[in-house]
Amino acid sequence: MPAEQEEEDSTIHIVTVDSTNLRFSPSSVTLVEGDSVRFFWSGQALPHNAVEANGFFDSGEPARDLDYTVLFEIGSNGTYDFVCEPHEAFGMTGQLIVEPAPLPEPPANETNNSQTNMSDDEKMPSISLVSTLTTVMAASLIIYHRRMETNFDHCPGRTLPQAPNSK
Asked: pTM to 2 decimals?
């Protein structure tokens, strides 16, 4: 889609005309989504324009001076054939090949680089560790209570309190 504004991080590819041979220069450009193509010429003896075959862009009426920019946004990858309408019969054609933009790099983890390559299982204690600790604590409590009961039974004159009889 045509754009009047260029992206700061995009590359601008310039296409001019070779009026002597009635050709675009360069006639083929390979670019990446996010880049722009600027059709630029001035003081030409013959008027020219740049019109994409499927209407994706059109610089307008042929002119001796032209400054027209097309931005290829993300999702516009593909091949775009264009012509100079008054000189198409003389072979004044061109092609833009727009490649998909590269995927952005994931942000680096700056907090703890030693854990960057660890899987989620390695970062969290396993369930078996938690289960083992719980089992050891429960066994310790049972042993403690049994010892207390045993020690209480060996004390002469002491008896365990009895629940009241309900009649």
From this structure: 0.59
